[in-house]
Amino acid sequence: MIRPTAFFSLLLALPLTAHADPAADYAEHCAACHGEDRLGGTGPALIPETLGRVRGIDTVIAQGRVSTQMEGFADRLSPESITALVDYVTAPLDHRPDWSAEQIAASREMNPDYQPAEKPVFAADPLNITLVVETGDHHVSVLDGDTFEVLARFATPFAVHGGPKFSPDGRFVYIMSRDGWVQKYDIWSLAEVGRIRAALNSRNIAISPDGQRIAVANYLPESLTILDSDLNPLRLIATQVDGTPSRVSAVYQAPQRHSFVLALKDAPEIWEVATTDLSIRRIPIDEPLDDFFFSPDYRQLIGANRDGDKGVAIDLDDGHKVAELPLPGMPHLGSGITWERDGRRVMATPHLGEGVLSVIDMQDWSLVKQIKTSGPGFFLRGHATSPYVWADVFFGPHKDEMHVIDKQTLEIVKTLAPFPGQTFAHSEFTRDGSHVLVSLWEDEGAVVIYDAKTLDEVKRLPMRKPSGKYNVWNKITFEDGTSH
């Protein structure tokens, strides 16, 4: 016979649930926030397309997420049940979900407490504000670019993706999440205006030159969503070629052309959508492009093929290929920048597959140099006032390094590595180019501020896994050293 004390010890040793039933656990603990269909509600969508490369889902389920409404369930679910639940939410749905124009419109949520200010509620230069995206707890910090004081910090939708976009006057910013939410924030008032869900899985957004229309590039459903500046849906454009849907790999504004330019990921076409009447011009190309970059006059589009072994330059006026570029090793053209060198315009791009930066002459499209780096990088930054390009080494064992490269000699003049073994990435200049902000891309991270001339550290600001940093002036003026 089992003694009472032994019996209770045995009970305590048993799993919290007799067997794993992830569907039932989801319905009980998750559906209220994430939707019965896993497509999201007050919480993000829990489907493979949205979760993507998100890591540590089991830890989030067990322990919750700080500074969010996500609570932990370790006291109610056994480790086996949590593992089964992770498998459940990362498995494809048994049907292909859709997101209609009516659903987009119904998702629009405006902040009833928002009151627009007549002028900025702070004394800082509103055009020297830098936004810091903190992915550790899904917030954005509003940073004074002169004093480096944090003026405000606000919550964003889950998993911000693709880079915020500013209205032409720099007052408003539009922020998009991987699961299709577009948030509008008033920098002058330091207040959210509202948000709308443009799709179920999105890549990035672009804003028209007059600030009146926002284009959202979508993977699911395969489409381009057009919103007005007040987040009202205007049009949902299905991206199809010969009746076959194609994801949109990226969309950008082409200000001189008064258009949005988008590349289709699954079809060999570039689309140009007029920002005035939303008419569509389709440009056939040899093969699909994953990402792209523009010449300063926006006449040429420079794109990378899906195999990542070459680049092409397309003339957007006549739709013909101008040149094929020697860009092996998966060039990341979305981070490309340009500058003047010896009287000629050059562009540079990092490579995701090898430790080089390629520098291309934009007049004859020849390869000027491949700069050897400590490993594959992801982001480049420069500024018209600075003689240097800042290049991270995002992937591999040297992810803790940041190269500073001379624009004229194309030589690395200094390598910064203040945090051994930790990711040190993504730089951004202040409006006047006097300082550079770099991210310690860790959960208990920081933004490190450098003097752009001496390359000496000036200040550190603790942040929760800061990723991108975006200066208002550099973005709205399309500064040479800023990717667009």
- What portion of the residues fall into strands of 2 or more residues? 35-45%
Number of helices: 8
CATH class of the domain at 4-89: Mainly Alpha
Overall SS class: mainly beta
Helix content range of the residues, please? Answer: 10-25%
Beta-strand segment tally: 35
Gap between N and C termini: 74 Å
Strand order of the largest sheet: 1-8-7-6-5
Mean pLDDT: 90
CATH architecture label of the domain at 4-89: Orthogonal Bundle
CATH topology title of the domain at 4-89: Cytochrome Bc1 Complex, Chain D, domain 2
CATH homologous superfamily annotation of the domain at 4-89: Cytochrome c-like domain
Radius of gyration: 24 Å
User: Main β-sheet: number of strands, strand sense, barrel status?
Assistant: 5 strands, antiparallel
Shape: globular
What are the low-pLDDT stretches, counting only 5+ consecutive residues below 50? 4-18
Protein name: Cytochrome d1, heme region
GO molecular function, one term: heme binding
InterPro entries: Cyt_c-like_dom, Cyt_c-like_dom_sf, Cyt_cd1_C_sf, Haem_d1_sf, Host-pathogen_enzymatic-act
Keywords: Heme, Iron, Metal-binding, Signal
